């Protein structure tokens, strides 16, 4: 099953010569390894490493995230057979999708909202990264909310409250210090060449539907963000219509909000920014990043190890 022409035309128009690297990454994705993180609410990276050694499973550590592991695809079934996975001590998650919680710069005691939380990969990661925060996880679809609650219990994420609600309709009564909006998207960053499962339903109509929903979610997210707070917007897409266009539209409407550059550790006065740890992560490690028109946003290019992913950090002025 071939990639749709609208997708090829869109990335060629947006990324120019770099579009070829996106297509190469989509071709390499069929060999993508298994990736997961140790759930530090129940275990440790050291315990996980020992269990992998004992099971004879080859692995390597992720240099930018001490809790993350990469295992060759040939060992996938062996990973699924581990007690670790059934006991909630590890969580299978793509490397790219581990980045948004790391970029959110959370602190103990903060009120944190995950706007589109199911099935709970990033929610449980947030809970593990900052167990002293108060996390609200929103999910509108009942079966997905059930799955979310199951994963939260399995992972031991006790500081998370599930709210069964359409996040686009959150009451303005609510306000949050940090918001993760990992928006439903076309999944263009997760396409695998020749894999009908990933291409099924991928269309211009889906793109238009997702773009409308993403703008509505961003509008509501910035509305319930506290002054001085930060919202991290992400998608598993490489299409600007879902990414930079959505950010530009939101900031045009919300004049009290602005972009916080994810790739800069210092501001114009030389002071460390809230994104400094993430900016240093990007600078020090070999994560494949594409050039974006909106400076300070990040698009991870699809590759053998990474899914295509977009991240943008916004803040509401005090």
What does this structure look like?
The chain is an alpha/beta fold and about 325 residues long. It has twelve helices and 13 strands. The strands form two sheets. Strands 5, 6, 7, 8, 9, 10, 11, 12 and 13 form a nine-stranded mixed β-sheet that branches. Strands 2-3-1-4 form a four-stranded antiparallel β-sheet. Helix 1 packs across helix 2. The termini are far apart. The mean pLDDT is about 95. Pfam families: Methyltr_RsmB-F, RsmF-B_ferredox. One of its GO terms (biological process) is RNA methylation.
Q: Would you list the SSEs in sequence order as H and E?
A: HHEHEEHHEHEHEHEEHHEHEHEEE
By DSSP (H or I, 4+ residues per run), the number of helices equals 12
Categorize the overall geometry: globular
Class of the largest domain, according to the CATH hierarchy?
A: Alpha Beta
Low-confidence stretches: none
Helix content: 25-40%
- Give the full name of the CATH homologous superfamily of the largest domain: Vaccinia Virus protein VP39
| Number of domain modules | 2
**Strand tally, please?**
13
Q: Main β-sheet: number of strands, strand sense, barrel status? A: 9 strands, mixed
Q: Could you tell me the mean pLDDT?
A: 97
Radius of gyration equals: 19 Å
CATH architectural label of the largest domain: 3-Layer(aba) Sandwich
CATH fold description of the largest domain:
Rossmann fold
Spatial separation of the terminal alpha carbons = 50 Å
């Amino acid at each position: 099953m071939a990639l749709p022409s609208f997708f090829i035309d869109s990335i060629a128009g947006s990324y120019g010569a770099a579009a070829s690297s996106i297509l190469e990454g989509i071709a390499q994705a069929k060999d993508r390894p298994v990736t997961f993180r140790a759930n530090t609410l129940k275990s440790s990276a050291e315990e996980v490493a020992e269990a992998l050694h004992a099971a004879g499973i080859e692995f390597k550590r992720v240099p930018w995230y001490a809790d993350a592991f990469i295992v060759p695809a040939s060992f996938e079934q062996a990973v699924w057979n581990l007690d670790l996975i059934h006991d909630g001590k590890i969580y299978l998650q793509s490397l790219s999708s581990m980045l948004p919680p790391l970029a959110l710069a959370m602190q103990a005691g903060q009120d944190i909202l995950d706007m589109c939380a199911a099935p709970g990969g990033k929610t449980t990661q947030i809970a593990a990264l900052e167990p002293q925060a108060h996390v609200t996880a929103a999910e509108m679809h009942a079966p997905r909310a059930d799955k979310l609650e199951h994963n939260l219990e399995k992972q031991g994420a006790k500081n998370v409250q599930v709210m069964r609600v359409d996040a686009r309709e959150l009451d303005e009564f609510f306000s949050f210090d940090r918001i993760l909006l990992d928006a439903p998207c076309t999944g263009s960053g997760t396409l695998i060449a020749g894999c009908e499962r990933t291409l099924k339903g991928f269309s211009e109509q889906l793109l238009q539907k997702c773009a409308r929903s993403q703008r509505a979610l961003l509008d509501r997210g910035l509305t319930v963000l506290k002054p001085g707070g930060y919202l991290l917007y992400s998608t598993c897409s490489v299409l600007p219509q879902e990414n930079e266009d959505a950010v530009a539209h939101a900031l045009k409407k919300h004049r009290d909000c602005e972009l916080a550059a994810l790739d800069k550790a210092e501001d114009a006065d030389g002071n460390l920014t809230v994104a400094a740890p993430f900016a240093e992560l990007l600078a020090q490690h070999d994560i494949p990043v594409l050039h974006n028109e909106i400076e300070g946003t990040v698009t991870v290019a699809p590759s053998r190890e990474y899914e295509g992913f977009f991240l943008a950090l916004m803040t509401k002025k005090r």
